[in-house]
Design goal:
about 35% helix, three-stranded antiparallel sheet, alpha+beta, single chain
Length: about 80
Amino acid sequence: MKSDIKITAVFEKAEEGGYVAYIEEIPGVNTQGETIEEAKENLYEALELVLEVNRELNHKETSNKETVQEIFSLVS
């Protein structure tokens, strides 16, 4: 069964100006921007970086094990 997986982007107005943004369901994915649009662009980049780091860490942990990897899209 396929379904779209949705995540929640949160944008909080910062006291010093601009916005702080994070993905509610994925710890470590956070950023900021002067506008919501800039924060959103930065959030995509932060997500890519966190996923890349997690892949590298996982590869180190599983390098001596037999594994099967499959790339899949979050949107069906």
